[in-house]
Design brief:
By secondary structure, this protein is of the alpha+beta class. Helices cover 61% and strands 8% of the residues.
Length: 358
């Protein structure tokens, strides 16, 4: 799989993660507002500052609803903005604790939910900063509560230690989950024989290149024409190679071709095996001249590959199409390059005279 394709997937994944963070944040703040309001209505709950509690519930509820309904576009915000939001609400939480009983406040369990959110969603050091801020917020109750009252100091220390343990556990778990997800994604988009992208990976790279290029009639700067080249490569006489030298030799030819072609393309190019002996390249930024040079480099790389000692070098038929000249949609581009490949095969070569294996 190409670096460019992996980068596009990573960017999309980060945007989805931030959108999920916004929704979860909204749900948690709404839950907090509901618990705060319910606590004021239950018997036995001291209500020394009822109007302040109701005002805070209204504020948190409105903010939570805005997040949940995506009125606040958290999916487009940088991850630092999510951390800033967590930090910005710490004074609100500290005020809510004070208004509802301090260290013995009935809303204390809600801090655990906020801790889980920060520990899981925020990456690396940001998680520690976010969770550390929550621990300090709970410790703020010691400013107006004697350390011996309602086991205030013991509660604060227990919460701080819990923050550390939960953050360490969730960060470790998330790293393992992300590694497993990346491995599964790689397997789903990689060809097992050659290590190149498979047809699914190629389709994703082609669609991504079209989307990145943009519409030809709008949103495109004069110096950013949105060009890219699509190359289709067919191994000449591959059936004869299999028949003469065996399928093991044919597989070795494909692996060596894949390695050779990967060595002449750029990191952002996607090289894929889309059929038995058919390869494709998506080359962002390449025009007609770039496609021609790339096709020649690919042929030179193939000429270094022989199915067996003494055998003729492998040759390729290569065709290309350029976006947007030969089409805007992936299907149109592929149809254009497929016609070019078919014409090249028809123009053809004489049947290969492969020597018998020595």
């Amino acid at each position: 799989m190409s670096t460019g394709e992996a980068t596009l997937g990573a960017v999309a994944g980060l945007a989805d993660e931030r959108r999920t963070m916004g929704r979860w944040s909204g749900a948690l703040w709404l839950l907090g507002a509901a618990v705060g309001a319910a606590g004021q209505a239950l018997p036995g709950v001291e209500a020394e500052h009822p109007w302040l509690v109701w005002a805070l519930c209204g504020l948190l509820g409105a903010y939570g609803l805005a997040c949940l309904l995506e009125w606040i576009p958290w999916g487009r915000a940088p991850i630092g903005a999510h951390l800033a939001a967590v930090l910005a609400f710490q004074p609100v939480l500290a005020l809510a604790l004070w208004a509802t009983g301090g260290a013995a406040s009935y809303i204390t369990p809600l801090l655990v939910l906020a801790m889980l959110y920060a520990a899981y969603f925020l990456p690396g050091w940001m998680a520690w900063v976010g969770v550390g801020a929550l621990a300090l917020t709970y410790a703020s109750t010691l400013l107006y509560t004697p350390v011996g009252e309602d086991q205030a100091l013991a509660r604060v220390l227990a919460f701080a230690i819990s923050c550390e343990g939960v953050t360490l556990s969730l960060q470790t778990l998330k790293r393992r989950l992300l590694a497993a997800e990346a491995a599964q994604r790689e397997m789903a988009h990689a060809d097992a024989l050659t290590g190149l992208a498979n047809r699914r990976g190629f389709d994703a790279a082609l669609a991504g290149a079209v989307a990145a290029a943009g519409a030809p009639d709008r949103g495109r700067r004069a110096l950013d024409p949105g060009r890219f080249a699509l190359l289709l490569i067919d191994v000449d006489h591959f059936k004869a190679i299999n028949d003469t030298y065996g399928h093991t030799a044919g597989d070795a030819v494909l692996r060596r071709l894949a390695a050779g072609i990967s060595g002449v393309v750029r990191p952002q190019d996607c090289v894929a095996r889309i059929g038995g002996d058919e390869l494709a390249i998506v080359a962002p930024g390449a025009g007609e001249d770039g496609a021609r040079r790339l096709a020649q480099a690919v042929r030179v790389a193939a000429a270094r590959v022989r199915p067996a000692a003494g055998a003729a070098p492998v040759s390729l038929t290569v065709a290309w199409a350029v976006h947007p000249d030969d089409g805007d949609a992936p299907a149109d581009l592929f149809a254009a390059v497929d016609r070019g490949l078919h014409a090249g095969k028809q123009a053809g070569r004489a049947p290969s005279a492969l020597p018998s294996p020595s």
